[in-house]
Structures are given as structure tokens and as C-alpha cells.
Amino acid sequence: MQRARVVGAGHFVPARVVSTERIARAIPGWSAERIIERTGIRERRFLWDFDEKKGVAIAPPEGESLYPISGCDMNEVALQRALQGAAIQATDLDALFVITCTPDELNFSHDAMELHRRFGMRKDAFAMVIDDGCGGTPYVIDMVRKMIEAGAMKTVAVVASAFTSPLVNRDVFTAEIEPSPGEKALSGILSMYVFGDAAGAVIFRGDSGGDHGIVSSFSAATHEELVLRRGGGSMRHCHQGRSGGAQMAFVVHGQKVALGYPRVMEECIATVTDGSQLTRQDVDRFYLHQPNKRLLDLMIEKSELEPSRVAVNVDRYGNTSAAGMLVLLSEDLAAGRVALGSGAMVVIAAVGANTHYGAQLIAL
Length: 364
What we know:
Blueprint: E1 3-12, E2 17-19, H1 20-26, H2 32-39, E3 43-45, E4 49-51, E5 56-58, H3 71-86, E6 95-100, H4 110-118, E7 126-131, H5 136-149, E8 155-162, H6 170-174, E9 176-177, E10 186-187, H7 189-194, E11 198-207, E12 213-221, E13 227-228, E14 251-252, H8 254-274, E15 285-288, H9 293-302, H10 314-317, H11 324-335, E16 345-352, E17 356-363
Parallel strand pairs: 6-7, 6-8, 15-16
Antiparallel strand pairs: 1-11, 2-3, 4-5, 8-11, 9-10, 12-17, 13-14, 16-17
Helix pairs in contact: 1-2, 3-4, 8-9
């Protein structure tokens, strides 16, 4: 049986640093001090700038050749770096899956098809966008693992991105929506405070020899609305007058996330380590979804993880959704903290959105 082995990883994080003080001025609700106290996020990275007085994103000038300036651009950089690290060509890829809930264009797997075009991939290579959030990454990796182990595919790229900066809009994210009738109304301000832009990519290749690759993996689905975004679908088009304001925002249900995140992440870590006859003490690095720094720290404590083994960048980059775990892995590889072919044991785990979750134990 082939084992799905990591052969390359890459990432892109914008250079623009946005302080918590600045985003608090653009999107009023919490003070900068409260945001830092409650989330531990002091800054995030944005590809687009914004007008903090008006509280709206500043679109790039039309007609100017700027790069990178879109989600597809970020994905392209991350995937190119992953291909270089793997020393393979895009024509070697049998499939490309892009995980995002903030695509450049909504329909027809646009962002994946655009990468397929830019990289000159084979016509018979699959290219699909998976509309998902944080938990989508291990969820899709588990699917890829099954495809490779079954022999249906040999080489697959998984790319994930978060492109929050174009969404900055004071009116939309300070408006309120009821999660369910009679429930306390929520606004989207927390999304503006915690999310940032980034893209990550990882390439898996079937390997029938050696001990490297995905050792243990699982994925699962429950049905909780951790993040609401009600507008934009066929039932709530703006032109119908049935969508607007907070329905167009990503609204994080903070209480549900705070209660569910430590519990589900513990399940993720326990499942992949117990299933491999290893313990969490045998894991060299953990690449975990980071909703914010405070929740991550709490989960580390509750799960009795050694903090030095948990990669962290949420305090500097913000919550980068599905991209987060892949960015952490790529950064560690680039810094030499772990190395492909070394056999280092790492865990990828995440939960999010409405609700996919899962984890992988991987021997690099």
C-alpha cells in the first residue's frame, strides 16, 4: 500500500502589518486593549490596505500590474514554493484542491481552475475549490490520504488560503444578526479583529517504501454553526432584498468556539496518537488551528502539551483559517526546525466553521 508522504510545502504571508490599535479604530466595538487581552493577537497581515477613518478596504487601482494582490496570487506563490521544495513540476500533479471560504470568485471552482491554468497542469488533473474554513484542511488531507493509499492518485497538492482584507467594512461587520430566533444577536467585529491573510500549500506523493508519510489520520463532521455567513446564496441574494448588512459578514459565535475548541482538538490529537501506538510525547511538532492566542494557550494547557513543541504565529499573523496549519509547517521547514526525510513526527489538527474537523500524524 502506498503511504501519502509530504514531499514539499510552501507559504505566503503579506508584508503589510496591521496593528490591533489600527483595526480597532477602523472597526469600533472593542478597544485595542480588550482585543489583545481577550485574543492575544497584537497584529495581523493584510494584503489590501484599508481606510481606518471610513472603515473600508482600499481596492487596488484598476489597470495597474500589481502582484501579489489576490487570493489566487497568494496561492500561486505558496504552491510554487511547495513545488520547488518537492523538486517536481506542476504537470506531475494528479489533483489540486484549494480550501478557502474567501475565494476571488465564488463559483465554478474559480481559484483552483485559475491555478490549474497558471501552472499549465495536465487536462486530466483534477482542480477543485473546497468551500471550507479552518477544519477543512485536515478534512481534505484525510480524503487525499485515502485516494493515494487506494492507488487512485500519486501526487496531490493541497492549497489553503484566507483573504480577509478585502472584506473590511465597518457597516457590515458592526451590524448584528440573530444566530437563531430569540438568541442574543451577534456582530462580525470579532472576525475583523482576529483574521488575517495568508496562503499555504503542501504536496503529498505516494510512497510504497520506507516509514515516512501519514501514519494515522481521521476526519469527521458535526453540525454546529461556529461561524455564520447567511447572505449570498440563492435563497438570500442581495438583489432579492433578502440579504445585506451582517448577513454578508463572517460572524464568529465566540462562545461556541470557546467551549468546543479545546474539547474537539483534544479528540483530534488523542485519536491520531492513540491510533498509532504513540503518545503525544513522541510528537516533535504540533501544527494546530489557532482561533486566537488565548484559546490556543488554554487548549495547550488542558491537553498537557509541551508549549515548546507547538508552533505559534497567530499573535503576529492573526487567524489564517484553513491556511494556518500549512503556513506553520512551511515556516518550520524553511527555518530548519524540522526536515523532510528526517522522520520527525508532526501533528496537523483543526476544527472550524460548521463543522469539519480532523487530524493527521505524519512522519516527515
